[in-house]
Design brief:
Blueprint: H1 2-21, H2 24-54, H3 69-103
Helix pairs in contact: 1-2, 1-3, 2-3
C-alpha cells in the first residue's frame, strides 16, 4: 500500500503541474486524471491505516483467554502515527491540486 500511495501522490503532482501548463482542451481530461489520482492516494492511505490497526485484532484475545488491551492501544497509536505521517503529504498534494484547478478555471467576463 505505501508504494501505491507514494506513486499516486507523485502522479497527482505531475497532473497538477500539467494542468497549469496545458491548453484548455486538454485540461478537462487532466482534471479528471488528477481527481482519480488523488482518490487512489486517499483510498490507499485509508487501506494502509485500516490494515495496520486491524492486524493485531486477532491477537487481542489469546487462545488461553488472557486479554491483551495494550496491543489495541499500541495499534491505535501506530495507526494515528501512520495517518499523520502519510496524511500530511496527501493533504498538501490535494491542496496543490485544488489550487491548480482553481488557477486554471475560466474567468467570468
Amino acid at each position: 500500500m505505501p508504494a501505491l500511495f507514494a506513486t499516486s501522490l507523485l502522479v497527482a503532482l505531475a497532473f497538477a503541474t500539467a494542468i497549469s501548463f496545458s491548453s484548455p482542451q486538454s485540461r478537462r481530461w487532466l482534471k479528471w486524471l488528477l481527481v482519480l489520482a488523488l482518490a487512489v492516494a486517499w483510498i490507499a492511505l485509508a487501506l494502509a491505516v485500516s490494515e495496520l490497526v486491524s492486524r493485531p485484532s486477532v491477537t487481542l484475545v489469546t487462545p488461553g483467554g488472557a486479554r491483551q488491551p495494550r496491543l489495541f492501544e499500541q495499534a491505535a497509536r501506530q495507526g494515528l502515527t501512520l495517518f499523520l505521517s502519510f496524511g500530511a503529504p496527501a493533504l498538501l498534494v490535494t491542496l496543490l491540486g485544488w489550487l491548480s484547478l482553481r488557477a486554471t478555471r475560466p474567468r467570468p467576463q
